């Protein structure tokens, strides 16, 4: 579940000015999950959600799908043309020096690397340092809550029982007939 104050605390702890979450046609499942967009949320246009370490987030959405992020806090900027998109990104990042995005340096973690090179290049052309959001994703997407942890423990018990039955069946087959 999206928790702005926890995300902003993490950004401050990591000394990152903001987290720029970006998606185009469902290419960034991590952003969709962090932002609480359901699997059925369809976005055929680019959207960005900028969470600053301090202050109010800002949404940048296409006019055709301007309501895609309405469930989230923050000001909304609507664009139509690509020039307006670029101007909007400049506005989002105007006071930021270092931001996190779903990017992985080199070939270190393809599971995190979801932002296309052109978008990354444009953000960097604005003088903004882009770091991987991998640690943030780990905190806000890859962490088990109590219910998930219990399901994990239940699954482990079932797996253990299944292996016990399998080994007993093998042992019985070997003892009774010399093979399985």
Q: Briefly, what is this?
A:
The protein is α/β, with parallel strands linked by helices and 180 residues long. Helices cover 42% and strands 17% of the residues.
Low-confidence stretches at least 5 residues in length (pLDDT < 50)?
Answer: none
Largest sheet, strands/sense/barrel: 6 strands, mixed
- Domain tally: 2
Distance between the termini: 49 Å
Helix share, percent: 40-55%
Q: Kindly report the name of the CATH homologous superfamily of the largest domain.
A: Creatinase/prolidase N-terminal domain
The SSE order reads HEHEEEHEHEHH
Biggest sheet, spatial arrangement of strands:
4-3-2-1-5-6
- Oligomer, anyone? single chain
CATH architecture of the largest domain: 3-Layer(aba) Sandwich
Proportion of residues in β-strands? 15-25%
Query: How many H/I helices?
Result: 6
Q: Just give the CATH class of the largest domain.
A: Alpha Beta
Task: Let me know the number of strands.
Answer: 6
Q: What integer value in Å does the Rg equal?
A: 22 Å
CATH topology name of the largest domain, in short, is Creatine Amidinohydrolase, Chain A, domain 1
What does this structure look like?
The protein is an alpha/beta fold and 180 residues long. It folds into two domains: 4-140, Creatinase/prolidase N-terminal domain (Creatine Amidinohydrolase, Chain A, domain 1), CATH 3.40.350.10; 144-180. 42% of the residues lie in helices and 17% in strands. It contains six helices and six strands; from the N terminus they run αβαβββαβαβαα. It has a six-stranded mixed sheet with strand order 4-3-2-1-5-6. Strand 5 (98-101), helix 4 and strand 6 (129-132) form a beta-alpha-beta unit. The relative contact order is 0.14. The mean pLDDT is 91.
